[in-house]
Amino acid sequence: MDSSPHIRDDEIFLRMNLAERIQHYLLISTFFLLMVTGLPLFFYEFKAFKWFFPTERVFYMRGIIHRAAAVVLIANLVWHLFYAAFTARGRNNLKEMIPKIKDFRNAFELLWYNVGLTRFLYRLGISKKFFDAHPYWLFKNPPLFGRYNFIEKFEYWAVGWGSVVMIISGFFMWHVELSLRFFPLWAHDIFVIVHSYEAILAFLAVIVWHMYNVHLNPEVFPMSKIWLNGQITGQELRLLHPLEYQKIVEEREKSLPKNAAAT
Amino acid sequence: MAERKTIFFASFYLFLFLLAPFVLSQTNEDCLACHADPELKAEAGKSLFVDNEKFLSSAHGKAEISCVDCHTDLGQTKDFPHASPLKPVDCSQCHETASQEFQKSVHFMTTETKGSPIVVGCKDCHGTHDIRGSDDYDSTIFPLNLPATCEKCHLKKVPAKKGPDFILKYEESVHFQALQKFGLTMSANCSNCHGAHDIKQVSDPLSPVSRKNIIGTCGSCHVGIRKAYLEGVHGKDYVKGVGDVPVCTDCHSEHDILSRQDLKSKVYATKVAEVCSRCHDNLALTRQYGMLASRLETYKESFHGIASSFGETRVANCASCHGFHDIRPSSDPNSSINPENLPKTCGKCHPGASRNFAEAPIHVIRGEIAGTKYRFSYYVKNIYVIAITAIISVFLIFIAADLFRRIIRKDKHG
Fold first, then answer.
1. Is B309's CB within 8 Å of A183's CB?
2. pLDDT value for B215
3. Residues of B in contact with A204 (CB under 8 A)
4. How far is Cα of residue B399 from the mean position of the Cα atoms in its chain?
5. Among the partner residues A181, A183, A208, nearest to B396 by beta-carbon distance
6. How far apart are CA A184 and CA B353, in angstroms?
7. Per-residue DSSP letters for B300-320?
8. DSSP label at A136?
9. Which of A118, B270, B344, B359 is deepest in the core (most CB within 10 A)?
10. How far is CA B112 from CA B99, B116, B121, B158, B333, in A?
11. What is the pLDDT of residue B174?
């Protein structure tokens, strides 16, 4: 995407407003607490985790903290739902988050662009005719992303799905008597298994996927600061979210003649 | 003829009687003339001092028994200072029953063994001139003092086969704490379990602490527990003479019996599972007696087991569901794990526990779940494992591809 005269490279855009950042902070802190107080139970055989809860009292507090963090997480989720439903910005973000066929195509295209196998074959002269007729398969350029790329959309909906699973299974683990009044023991067992394995999935997803994308990726290393100040520059917008950049340019172009007429 | 004989003997005895004060002239005062001197020593350097005050307050002193009643070989002596050493005092001339009992004891055996360096006599436990009754506070065998008396030899001179600390461990036990802290003389001291005069080695089947007798020994104080034990599955096998059946000491340990609230106790809430699993997770024993195996393994995987391994005492351990002294098989209608009673048993911690609890087994062995409803949870688990592996693999592939492209691009630009 070429630089447009309508957006300066050092112009500041608000990618995450304060409410969104607070929601993110709350998610980080509750997620961290839930992991710290929950995961050791899954790895109960590792002696190293024993010092985590050295006494019975600490172990008791673990349960309290875990539940308290869960309540805050749920409250945060409810806030986010209201925010997404009843504010213009929230509604717009949610609209941008809706997964589209394009996202699946983007994922496919990005992977093949990065691997670059077809370009390599083309340079070697293999299947030259096919690639000349169908240049798409050369993946010459990375796919262009809008406000949210497929990675961000996946993470967003993964948090949503994960929260629902964890809240339902966790609720029945919290109220085991209630659970066992409605369900047989084997079904309750499934709640426990789902809760623990979903936690492992969430933990690994955050550690591997999210940490790479927002911290370790050379593009942003050591850390993308968006979660702290919510700001993104015109240049970053142009490079990382070209379709959103384009959209803003178009909006400004449209409003320009009006301004010109006014002046 | 007969009359003359009678007169002869009568006058002879009268003569002896009249002579007695002159022949048996040694009164306690005579002895103390020398032995009251604290400096009095034998040639070997051994003190020969006799504390008359102590003697007078001793059981023998109070009974006005004189020195020569015990030191019988001095009764006839006239030359003073008398020859030394004296013959050992023979207590059996008065204490016949105790002496007979003593002759059956391990202490007597060591004395009898030729060349044994260890000789145990009455005085080693009871003292000498200051012997007191067992109800005397200052007696060596007063319940509060007895452990120290036994420890005189059994800490260093004759340590237990299980190690020198084994005896000392008694001092950590509830029994000793009750004695020492609260002065409860009915609490078990050495002789309550091991016997007194007829003390025997543990390996002796007649010993009160042998496996065969230990139930009765502990049960002599813990009567209710003994009754419960004998009603339970362990007790029934114990009566049949099954050797592997656990007795009191197998779960509660021996000298260091602690309160179950004590963190170090073998039957502390979070440790019970280890105790039970010594047999119930032992493949050889479970096969021999047809018991269900893998009890510990399956408990450990449950939330009860996990929380317990982190020191949580409020979760169920073996005893919470199965009971303890009177553990019964689930087929017994009085058993806490009889299907009819399960809702009540679970309900102790989970109020309102429904019959659903009884529907599925708690200890599920992985290989045996096919066909049970438990397989669903394993399906879910497997699906998750596959899904997690797949998703994280895709993440890693994307990350690897991303890094690969960045490195190539850098090469080109650089």
1. no
2. 94
3. 388, 392
4. 64
5. A208
6. 11
7. HTSHHHHHHHTT-SSS--HHH
8. G
9. A118
10. 14, 8, 11, 17, 56
11. 93
Inter-residue contact A141 to A238 (CB < 8 Å):
no
CA triple B333-B351-B311, angle to 5 deg: 95
Instruction: Return mean pLDDT, chain B.
Output: 85
Does the pLDDT at position B287 exceed 80? yes
- The string of pLDDT tens digits covering residues B64-94 is 888 888 888 877 777 777 777 788 888 888 8
Residue type, A221: F
Neighbours of B155 (CB within 10 A): 15
Give yes or no for residue A224 having a pLDDT over 90.
Answer: no
Residue of A177, A183, A194, A204 to mutate when probing chain B, most B C-beta within 10 A: A177
- Give the containing element (helix H, strand E) for A233: strand A231-233
pLDDT at A219: 81
Residues of chain B contacting residue A194, judged by C-beta atoms under 8 Å apart = 380, 384
pLDDT, average across residues A86-93: 95
Contact A197 B384 (CB under 8 A): yes
**B window 103-142, beta carbon within 8 A of A:** none
Out of B376, B392, B401, whose CB is closest to A114?
A: B401
Where do the domains of chain B lie? Answer: 2-87, 96-291, 292-385
Nearest CA in chain A to B369: A186
Segment B196-247, tens digit of pLDDT? 898 988 888 899 999 999 999 999 999 999 999 999 999 999 999 888 999 9
Contacts of residue B372 in chain A, CB cutoff 8 Å?
186
Q: Which residues contact B122 (CB under 8 A, 6 or more apart)?
A: B89, B91, B95, B98, B102
> Model confidence over B110-126: pLDDT tens digits?
777 766 677 788 888 89
Helix (H) or strand (E) holding A14: strand A12-14
Q: How confident is the model at residue B366 (pLDDT cuts 50, 70, 90)?
A: low
Cβ–Cβ gap B310/A212 under 8 Å: no
* A204 contacts B312? CB cut-off 8 A: no
| This prediction's pTM | 0.75
Which of B261, B262, B402, B413 is the best substitution to test chain A (most A C-beta atoms within 10 A)? B402
The H or E element that residue A187 is part of is helix A185-204
- Render pLDDT for B140-161 as a digit per residue (tens, 0 to 9): 989 999 999 988 888 888 888 8
Domain positions in chain A are 19-97, 98-144
Q: Which residue of B lies nearest to A113 if distances are taken between CA atoms?
A: B405
Alpha-carbon distance B351 to nearest alpha carbon in chain A (angstroms): 7
Of B300, B388, B402, the CB nearest to A201: B388
